[in-house]
Amino acid sequence: MDLFPFQIDASSQIAERFHAYMEEPAAITRTRIIPFYQNLSSITGSGKTLILADAIEQIRSRLSIEPIVLWLSKGRVVVWQTFNNLANGKYSSLVGGFNVKPLLDCKPTDVEDSSQGLILVATVGKFNQKDKEQGDRKIFQVGLDVADKSLWEMLRSRKDSQGRKRHFIVVYDEGHNLSNQQTELLRELDPDALIAASATLRIPDALANIIERLRQDKHWDDDSFVTAVKSSAVVKSGLVKKHIMLCGYVTPMEIAINELLAQMKKANTTAPRLGLDFKPKAIYVSNTNVIDGVSIKEDIARPFADRMARPILIWRHLVESCGIDPKEIAVYCELKFDSKFPPPLTLNLFSGGDSDYDQFIAGDYRHIIFNLTLQEGWDDPSCCFAYIDKDMGSPDQVTQIIGRVLRQPGARHYSAPILNTAHFYIRTDEKGVFEAIIADVKRKLTADAPEISLTVTKSSHGGDRPTRLPLKHKEVPNVSINSVHAKGPISDIVRMIPTYLPNTEDTVGKGGRIQVLQTIGKDSNSKEAWVEMEHSNRVTARWVFLRELQRRHRKAAHLCDIEHPKFDVLIEYNSSAAELIRERAEKVADAYIEHSAIVQNALDNPYVVDSVPVNETRLVHFKNALHEAYSDLNGLEKEFAQALDRTNKVWCRNPSQGGYEIPLLDRGSTRTFNPDFLVWATNKRIVAIDPKADNLIVEDAGRKLLEIPKLAPGSEVVIRLVTEGQWAVLNGQPSKEKGKTGYTVWSLKQGKLHAAPCKNVDVAVQVCIRA
Q: At residue 286, what are phi and psi to the nearest 5 degrees?
């Protein structure tokens, strides 16, 4: 499973903070500690579960005894998905040192066997009960056939066969649901760490004394409790959609759905045109067994054609009026029917909740009608469209639904904005409801992720979406990385990694300063004491190699024979073998950068300029641009765009995500470069121009000014950067001359940085587009 650098950085920060704390934790008593606390704060779609999985494997790799992890989620569907993903699914390679089991399948032998880590997965409902003695939750009951004490008590003592107390870590996915009652119950287990994940930080009152002790004893500030993932990194990675479009309606349901289907039809034709293999999907959210405008339940003893329940009305409109094949529609809710008036056989009804969820997923339906029961757990990146009925329109509910639709298909942005956009059609007839929804979305989503643009339209009769189609067909040669010459040097580096033997001096390291609580003596004379452990838990050489390589350059891993048996050996985190493997991974990344080349090939499938999203209230119109207008131009961009328009050349503004991208080969924070403007200077020459602020030119001149060789005859792309003011090149670096106005155009001449001073923006544009 490939990780993005921002994901590795987040998981590493959690693990590093845990180990730093555990070297000298704050104590309650001689044998009890204040648990380490951390909240992973990241927007929906950033891979929080993946980050948590990698964090606990990193924590495990540096402990001297295998830990137990209690992994909790609120919904049963989420828990089942998490279990499958960790046990044998897409995340299993990240937690290879753990045995993954449902909580209620845990046996005493699982706790006593410390030869590997143990992950126990459960819903909070398995233990969220105040009165454990009288409760009916299985976790608190004594399993007389397998143990002489309850599972709860077994987890609290968690002694292995040698009397050592295993480290215990609680992971709570969707941590904003953590209640005071749950927190108090979890604290009874004396965990070493509480790690929560949530897009918004909300700490229960029951954690207040833990937070306060950590502030006083360890001098933690607010940032110490949070591992925050930058939303900009998530958006740039392509994991989430770039735009949110909220369309509010005070119309009949049919008009809003018709507009949804019209936009979905455009997306359906766009995806195959771009060579994509996914089909966009839509969801329709409504209450289930009530009539529109009436709070009472519907009389179900009526023929299907006479029913007024909203899921039925939506289904009938899709099938009877819009011609959608019933095979593509799923109704996932507890829709009631009288035995005398059954639904038609073509209605795919899933009313069993969790029991038929797998069957629902297997159907791969493209239109899903549901109520909020499907809200958590169902995350299909192909879902780009959502109709939300008026009675489901509370701000909080809509914001949560939006979170379910933010994931981006293929984890990349496309040239067509319609495929990078989460479209929402919200029907409401109550004054102020839509405005409240907009305010909530701005506060909870776009405020935390300003890189995700929000467009709002209100309609009583429908209307056009705020995009602008290109006025002409224009293409740009494809630019890519040619790594064919890097494979040999990389193979040589990998070949030099020794084939280590297990349990040798090279593969053994030290466990650090973290101590383990162990029972000393027997019966009445026994006592618990902290003991030093010499070694840390083992991981595969492959895990060490890949994590280091993914942190430095993910694509380099694809050129390595990672399945070679030498990577199967188990080594300790701090061993000399691990250190050498990390060094080799760094050399592989260097070799990939040094021996690969950025090339352009006019014979490849070219980039075709598509429609662009615009803000209708901030439009600037142009005469010669490829689109009639653009919006949200900053001062320098607007001035430059107007100068481009005066050249009478065809030009366009290039979107920052999903537009024309040029890959980069360096160790910078970004892996691609989206120039602000494209200009068709001649039939065969396209100039990519990027105006730069002063603080960016020093770095970007070295990273983004590229001479891109052509692999085939045809059109070519050249790059120019522009800054305000007069600049010169001193010792190979940009240097601004004080007090001089105008502009500077940056290019490469014979491989060296070149600065061309220009007295005004029109001259700068001419310098950019001339040969």
A: -155, 165
